[in-house]
Design a protein that fits this description.
Shape: globular
Strand order of the largest sheet: 1-14-13-17-18
Bound molecules: copper (II) ion
Radius of gyration: 20 Å
CATH architecture of the largest domain: Sandwich
CATH topology of the largest domain: Immunoglobulin-like
Length: about 290
């Protein structure tokens, strides 16, 4: 009897390690490639010992890359769509030419207004020689943060950011408030968000449970969106932190879609879950306060 206890603990510890690794590298050839078994400067959290999944903007990216942003109009008017180009270069100024496909795309471009009321998830076209291009709408006056998420071939996930002032540049002051209820109805779906625990600095599993809003029947035929059960973007209330999230089971079809993430510090966060059902993508936003 004396011996079983330490062994049980050992097995439990080994299991946890395996689960942690599985949680981060789940399911796909893509994630296997994404992670490449290496530490990721911007998405390293949850792997052994790192404590943050967050990227605090371009300042956190190492100096080995440069992103040069250009807009067809330096100051787009409110309601205008500007063509945005991002040129990725290495430390020597040479264009980075090859990128790894990540969630089916070479680059994901997230656009949010500073007050986080506006959200867009775009996929720029690759024009070769490290140049990406996207048409980005700026619906109202205010500041917008552009977040480019990509992986230079054979490298690790990168986040490069850029602020754009549209129109007067003055947006409405942030009115971000934690949601009173984490059950939302969007496009005929009722989506509930739960956490196994919610504490800054600790890896948490956030689970979206998706039902038909009318019949309340669980939806069990979600379609893959960007190669996984869904795509989740998390940004801190001050728009500084952009969090990467890993689906625990990429091939899940609902009603549950679970993601691992780590909120780096206490405070407000806005979460956008994106899922596909019957050929249509729907986006469900939540605002939470992380203790
Ligand atoms: Cu994307």
């Amino acid at each position: 009897m004396m011996k079983t206890k330490p062994r049980t603990i050992f097995i439990a510890a080994a299991l946890v390690t395996v689960l942690l690794l599985a949680g981060c590298g789940t399911g796909g050839k893509q994630t296997a490639a994404d992670h490449g078994g290496q530490a990721e400067p911007t998405t390293g959290g949850g792997h052994a010992g790192h404590d943050s999944h967050a990227s605090g903007g371009s300042s956190e990216s190492s100096a080995a890359l440069q992103a040069e942003w250009k807009l067809s109009k330096e100051k787009p008017a409110a309601g205008e769509t500007a063509q945005v180009t991002v040129q990725i270069r290495d430390a020597d100024g040479k264009p980075v030419e090859k990128f790894d496909v990540n969630h089916e795309k070479l680059m994901h471009l997230i656009v949010v207004s500073k007050d986080l009321s506006h959200f867009a998830h775009l996929h720029p076209d690759y024009r070769q020689n490290g140049l990406f291009q996207a048409d980005v709408p700026f619906p109202t006056d205010g500041e917008y943060k552009l977040i480019a998420d990509f992986i230079p071939a054979g490298g690790t996930a990168r986040t490069e950011t850029h602020w754009v002032a549209a129109g007067s540049g003055a947006g409405s002051p942030s009115a971000l408030q934690p949601d009173a209820s984490l059950v939302k109805t969007v496009d005929g779906k009722e989506v509930a968000l739960t956490f196994d625990k919610l504490k800054a600095g600790q890896e948490t599993t956030m689970t979206f449970t998706i039902k038909d809003a009318q019949s309340k029947a669980p939806i069990t035929n979600l379609q893959p969106y960007l190669g996984a059960v869904g795509h989740v973007v998390v940004i801190s209330g001050d728009a500084e932190q952009y969090l990467h999230n890993h689906p625990l089971d990429e091939s899940a079809k609902g009603p549950n879609a679970a993601f691992a993430t780590t909120f780096p510090k206490a405070g407000l966060y806005k979460i956008w879950g994106q899922f596909q059902h019957e050929g249509r993508v729907f986006t469900v936003p939540f605002t939470i306060n992380v203790p």
